[in-house]
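Hi Q.,

Before the meeting this afternoon, I wanted you to have the adenosine-5'-triphosphate prediction in hand. No need to reply - just skim if you have a minute. The sequence and ligand are here:
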Amino acid sequence: MNSDKWYARTADEAIAFWQTNPYDGLSSSEVKARLNKFGFNQMAEKPPEPWWKYFLAQFQDFMVLVLLAATLISAFLGEYSDAITILAIVIINAILGFIQEYRAERSMQALKQLAAPTARVIRNGMIQQVAARELVPGDILVLEAGDKIAADGRLIDDHNLEVEEAALTGESLPVRKVANRQFGENAPLGDRKNMIYAGTSVTRGRGKAVVCATGMRTEVGHIAGLIQASEEADTPLERRLENLGRWLVWGCLAICFVVMVTGIFKGEPLFLMLMSGISLAVAAIPEGLPAIVTVSLALGVQRMIKRNAIVRKLPAVETLGCTTVICSDKTGTLTQNAMTVRRIYAGGQLFDVSGTGYDIKGEFFLNGQEFDPKKDKSLQQCLLIGTLCNNSVVKQNNVSITGLWRRKNGSGWTVEGDPTEGALVVAAAKAGIWRETVERMQSRTAEIPFESERRRMSVVYRMADGSHALYVKGAPDTVLELCRYYYNGTTEVPLTPELVASITLANESMTSQALRVLAVAYRNLSPAEAVNVSDADERELVFVGLIGMIDPPREEAKRAIALCKQAGIKTVMITGDHRNTAIAIAKELQMYKDDSDKALTGAELDALSDVQLAKIANQVSVYARVSPAHKLQIVRALRQNGHIVAMTGDGVNDAPAIKEADIGIAMGITGTDVSKEASSMVLLDDNFATIVGAVEEGRGIYDNIRKFIRYLLSCNIGEVLTMFIAALAGMPLPLLPVQILWVNLVTDGLPAMALGVDPSDPDIMNRPPRHPAESIFSRGLIRKIVTRGIQIGLSTVLVFAAVYYWKGDLPLARTMAFSTLVFCQLFHVFDCRSEVLTIHEIGILTNKFLVLAVCCSITMQLAVIYIPILRGIFETAPLSLIDWVCVLVVSGWTFILSTLRHFLRRSPGRRYAVSYR
Ligand code: ATP
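Predicted structure with the ligand bound:
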């Protein structure tokens, strides 16, 4: 049989050919065997670069090449010790650079793995989520709206299934798919409506397919050929810093040239001056800047993963710190998504239901008295529809429930599927109604799946006597509109305005108690109607009742919202739920106050123009009964008001709003593949608090980048000034070339790297958000850099001049200047940890890497002064205790001064007086 023209054959033929079973799928051993035979379901990729290529790439840097040339010149002129030392320094620098870049690359790779696509399949008789690359031919794929299809397959079941195939056919309108049709062998790809193809996505409905082709054998595989690993684009900050770096290079080269020429005119040896110029240029140019930015971004991203946020697009890390509004879904993000039915309105009576979570133990009450649910027909019908119009399974200890476990107490009850539906299964089970038992007499023949826009779901069941019934559940306002009759427990009566008024009243009362309310209804279908059921059949329904369930707010969300307030970030709830329910939950979360906040419904939103919406958007804290299309309007209005918007979403239709937002956030657990693909960040735990944690990390990462820019640049200014002032003042060289290179190594290396992983300021969420266009040097950073650079330069020259002119001992003067320059920077690195707090307020030991890095640098410095062989190479002189006191006082003076200044400046009222927006 021609195995790639499955559209011309029946679903059964495909199932038989691939030796699979639509109910149980493949067994694990069979999957293993097929993986061996067919390989992984992935495109052929270019192999990753080996580690040594990263190492060699370090030697392609222009400044490194200049240094290597200097090494050769030294060797040529017989200055072997200089040549070896410079070479050693170049190699150590390359190793440091390599470690940084390789680490950044590895963490980026790890990130990609985390964001790897998955697929739902039936294997060993159970629905399982597996990595898409592990799909094999014969697997039974379970498809839902929002799924990105991971392999080619022949459909075996469909419920209003629509697939968007633009990636393959260029046709952006979704195509309706059907399992039970065949097409001619020459049918073009776009017409093969019984097939699904890898790379396309489900926009609507549900279905099942048997996988027929994986990896390079799929249609997209034929087109794509070899997929090149995509190039990671630089973030805006990285680009800005690269530009800055270029300016600095030219500035530094100019100064080095002046130093060199002045020396030569003064009669210093040509070679010495050439080497000094080169060394100074190497030391002064902050070549490590872009690498450290990447490392801090990558490490920050890893910290975010620990806090359950996966960043998919690196620039989002920078934008996170600027976020001014977080728009969040309610259900599952601000609330726990752990639903329990509490009240039921049926037959004109209000019943209470007891019990916790998904445990099926609970009783019914009417007017405070325990009530036997079997005594009320409308209550029973209500629960029956709730459990049949449902795709969730409630399990105990991973086994699906039937009446068997009814009397079993205990925990371990979980829901597989939508928690809203799980709550309905549990409520019915509490009344002795079991879907498994009912389905022995009635069987489902059709389904119109739930969609956020429709706010309802319908199923058709065939009774034992061959008749059919349509069961509908959904948002009360939506369902009520479709009802014409009312079931009062005995018979169906016309739905009068009085009845509608009492249902509406019951709904209002339940929703204002923060209950999430669903209405249930039904209609008996004629045999003709039961054949091809569509939305149009959801009419003239018989209203049965309302079911109200609690979904408690997340405690951590409450704390996170309070934190947002402190941080100047507005939080907005966007939900498909009822306005009252939304407001009640928002009040519990303290994100809504009657006097200052507004709530808008989708219908009210529709009546506003974009300009009108933008005008009031800043006051709206709750958007209720909105559909995904409204989210896009909301994002646009807020952005128009100058906000940086983070927006969550999970459904297939949330993708446009997620893309439009500055930070699009998808849900890791309940989110569809399409929403994840559109997002810049995915929440592994669907939790609002995780977003706030990520914002905090985003602010911290930006702070850290500012910290090491401050450190590197002020130190480099200090080094250049030392040489420059000495040259202008006609002094001998205060530092020899190898000494300059050494200073660069011990200060710019480990300590700067350690600053990149500095813990966030404890006050980081007490400031308003940063403006995205703000310069990296804003808020006084440039002044701090320049003044500290001058301090470092002057201190070093001063020590050199004092010792040289007073004692006339050039090696001693150089060693003292050399050590002063190193220690100035090692003291300064602690200052750079905060722009607001003093090191004593932060705690010296709170960044252990930094303490370790500084200790390493001190040891290295002592080594070049006290180990005889190194002393020879670096031409240093041993320092006495008095010398050290001098060095430490002069270099620590700046540290003490800045500490004092921090203390004096610290008046709580002024600390955050700067407005960043
Ligand atoms: P949020 O948008 O905050 O995540 P939500 O679940 O209320 O919350 P939607 O999923 O868009 O938002 O649902 C909209 C409405 O549709 C709900 O308020 C509810 O009335 C109804 N609904 C939700 N789930 C189902 C379902 N499985 N079957 C039928 N109706 C549902």
